[in-house]
Amino acid sequence: MTILDKIIENKKKELEVLTVVSSIRDMEKGRLFKRETVSLSEFLLDRNRTGIIAEFKRKSPSKGVINSSSSVVEVAFGYFKEGACGVSVLTDHKFFGGSPFDLMNAREKSSFPILRKDFILDEYQVIESKAIGADAILLIAAVLEKQEVLNLSRLAHSLGLEILLEVHEQNELDKVNQYTNIIGINNRNLRTFEVNTDISEKIAHRIPPGFLRISESGISSPQTIKKLKTAGYHGFLIGEKFMSTSDPVQAFAEFVKELK
């Protein structure tokens, strides 16, 4: 069983519990459920910003604990102040050390776009994403059938949430639909957790026109960003590069200076 298989198996067990603890009706009554979302796509296209979606991540299955001390609120606000187009917040607990409360805390009194990064399998999680204050959600093509991607995307769209559809292999582009806002090429193979940024360059010319495209994972230098921009990428999702330091915001600020 791969790490990805274990994550999905655990996520299904979590869902069985969550759907009993809190109903969809309860979530729809929440204060954040009623808020108007902010467009991540618009910020990615803003030339006055960096094109970077900076990520808050405490740990990963491949590297263990990355950062257990930084505050999600301080890091999220710091990232945006230094030029991030949006903030990605990991909400999976068992494998990534996150929580929906991390996203809710980052959301409080903030107006920047927040991407919920998790393993979304069910409509319950889409509604939960809106209820905790997300503006966009990640859907992973590797763990969803084409019809599932369509159904989840349609629901998210109806709630005002944008869709970042993550693919790793060319054939997964078949799951792109009319509700997809952003196509993300994940340079990490989720089954082996091996990373190779050449994946983004190889798949770039296969991405359908008309979609924003971002490259995810393994981006550790401004030079890589400059190279991927020439391949047509509008944005870049980066997490471990900053979170693995004692001061993620300072690390991000220094990265931005180099990028300029």
Short description:
The chain contains 11 helices and 10 strands. With 260 residues, it is an alpha/beta fold.
Describe what this molecule looks like in 3D.
The longest helix is centred in the N-terminal third of the chain and has 19 residues, at 3-21. The chain is globular, with a radius of gyration of 17 Å. The model has no long low-confidence stretch (mean pLDDT 95). It has helices spanning 3-21, 24-28, 40-44, 72-81, 100-107, 123-131, 146-158, 198-204, 222-230, 240-243, 248-259; strands spanning 52-56, 59-60, 64-65, 86-90, 114-117, 136-140, 162-167, 182-186, 212-216, 235-238. The chain has one domain (3-19, 40-259): TIM Barrel. The protein has an eight-stranded parallel barrel with strand order 1-4-5-6-7-8-9-10, surrounded by five helices. The protein has a two-stranded antiparallel ribbon with strand order 2-3. It contains eleven helices and ten strands. Helix 4 packs across helix 5, helix 4 (72-81) packs parallel to helix 11 and helix 9 crosses helix 11. Helices cover 39% and strands 17% of the residues. The chain has 260 residues and is of the alpha/beta class.
Write the layout of secondary structure elements.
Layout: H1 3-21, H2 24-28, H3 40-44, E1 52-56, E2 59-60, E3 64-65, H4 72-81, E4 86-90, H5 100-107, E5 114-117, H6 123-131, E6 136-140, H7 146-158, E7 162-167, E8 182-186, H8 198-204, E9 212-216, H9 222-230, E10 235-238, H10 240-243, H11 248-259
Parallel strand pairs: 1-4, 1-10, 4-5, 5-6, 6-7, 7-8, 8-9, 9-10
Antiparallel strand pairs: 2-3
